[in-house]
Amino acid sequence: MLEGVMMRSPTSFAVVVRRRDGSLHVREKGMPDGRTGAAKLPLVRGVASLVESLKLGGEALRFSAEQMERDFDEQEKEEAAKASSAAKKTGIGAGALRMLQAIAYTLFLLISADDGGEPAGSSGEVIEPVASPNDAQPEKEKASKGPMGLMLVVMVVFLIALPQAAAAGMNKLLKFGLEVQSPGFQAMTGAFKLTIVIGYLFVIRRFLPDIRRVFQYHGAEHKTISTYEANEPLTVANARAKTTLHPRCGTTFLVMVALVSILVFTAVGGFLPKIQTGKVLLDNVIFFAEKLPFLPLIAAVTFEIQRVFARYCTTGPLRVLLWPGFLCQKITTIEPDDEQLEVALASLRVTLFREEGIEKSVVPAVTAAGQAPAPADVRYRSFDVLMKSARLRRAA
Q: Transmembrane residues, as ranges (predicted)?
């Protein structure tokens, strides 16, 4: 997210973006309850959750980018030019910097409806009326597939292709003579996998100022969720006191996927078909293709493990199992300022109002055609106005 926070509750999806003038631009829509049907089954729910997160993350990223584009003026262009000049001094080329930024935004991702309130401007709450982009919905749905597809490509490259290529290079350089399917080769691949993932996180934090702000919003999101889970009022003061670490974080999931994949491929690598062509590069490509079908299973198993850890390992000696993820969260979360906390709190507040039963008779979670209704866009003048809004009066 760019200058914003996305939240997802069982029946609602919300994005709140801070505009340049300090106002909060809100998009909210009802969602089908994913806790029913086949989507609630173990393993299936992990894959379903991952696919939905990629889709919603792409939509949220596009929405926040649209708001930033609207606010982009000549002064910001000059600042961007200065930032580009500073980036050159770091030794990273502009092309490489843009590539890192594109991958970073991709990884840290997941139409009209009456918002149920009074008309825009009637009470001074809202700056802009509800948007009605019904005509553009097919194009937006098509566009949302782009970030999701890119995310899948990035996951495959970072978690399978690059580590295997690095292990193959090391195997050849040091003349270990390990077969591609051997446990030793897979253990070496796993070591490179963790190195690449953690190294990537360090690099984008160090060289991309925009990503540092994304990490601050990431920390604000965790603090907000912790405030809600502690049954405390959603205030900046309460959220400020919370930690930026959370057991159900996507960073923890990414690290756990890497660890689980090491165990899986080390265990099953020797049992996969051995197709030897006599050419090392081609053998690696074939084995890479053999591992691809395991990726959804690894993600599903990791999802279930993380659920267990988050439920039973948050206190006592078992908490040590969470520390690998927490250590990586030290990279991907940064202490937020109060304005960033306001955005995260507002996003959760907007998400919760549908859970409280508001507007269910006005904006159903699913239309008669079986599709989620178009999202409603509302722009509030300030955080205080949003939190006191009659539109969200029962979301405490």
A: 150-170, 190-208, 252-272, 292-310
